[in-house]
Write a structure and sequence with these properties.
Helix content is 52%, strand content 11%. The protein is α+β, with helices and mostly antiparallel strands and 216 residues long. Helix 1 (19-27) packs across helix 6 (162-177), helix 4 runs antiparallel to helix 5 and helix 4 packs parallel to helix 6 (162-177).
Length: 216
């Protein structure tokens, strides 16, 4: 049996696009170095990382070093390694559909929440919650309820997959800005509560970085 590699996750010192990765690693209780990069150091670091962007996952083992850019690629890699990509092909397909849908929502959210001024454009924020978020909320709610009809608690099946941690991170960030955004949407509220209650996740949530939206 091969030994687990040493892992280092490189990202800005915020939750952002790396939070779903951190949640997955917390769930499987895999040790790793969580390297938060100060913004002042980014111009120099940018010249040294693949694609000139973060997050980047570095895995070091006796066989050498693997450097993985792109948050989605990192998530899927870790999902395969730790068996969180679905128990069968049906679950794997569902997980991928949910993940891609959530990536689309996150991309729209990032344009409002992180670029260029962290929610400083109130009109854009209001438009997102009025016009964009409800559409994705309905899609995700339908996907979750379809799974619930089969007796499953998570989006792809009875156990969490990488897609669940991605959905959790993106929905939670919306709730931090507009706490009422899931009012009347019991399945999604139940899902967030169930993920928070997972013992390893509860341990992580108790000690993680503050909300990105408490930073001004």
């Amino acid at each position: 049996m091969s030994q687990e590699p040493e892992r280092e996750l490189v990202y800005f010192d915020i939750r952002g696009r790396a939070e779903a990765i951190r949640l997955l690693l917390a769930y499987v209780r895999a040790p790793y170095v969580d390297r938060g990069v100060p913004r002042a150091d980014w111009p120099t670091l940018k010249q040294t990382v693949p694609l000139g962007q973060v997050p980047v996952l570095i895995e070091r083992s006796a066989e050498g070093e693997r450097v993985i850019p792109q948050s989605a690629a990192i998530l899927r890699h870790l999902a395969r390694v730790f068996g969180l990509d679905g128990a069968n092909e049906d679950e794997r397909v569902r997980a991928d559909v949910v993940a891609e849908t959530t990536h689309d929502l996150r991309a729209a959210w990032a344009r409002v929440a992180y670029n260029p001024g962290w929610l400083k454009d109130q009109a854009a924020t209001d438009a997102h919650f009025r016009d964009v978020f409800p559409r994705f909320r309905a899609i995700l709610e339908g996907l979750l309820e379809s799974s619930e009809e089969k007796g499953a608690l998570y989006f792809a099946g009875p156990s969490p997959t990488y897609a669940d941690f991605l959905v959790f991170a993106v929905l939670e960030s919306h709730c931090e800005v507009v706490p009422s955004c899931l009012d009347g949407h019991g399945s999604l509220q139940r899902f967030l509560d169930d993920v928070r209650a997972l013992p390893a996740i509860a341990d992580y949530l108790a000690r993680r970085r503050p909300s990105d939206f408490e930073r001004g």
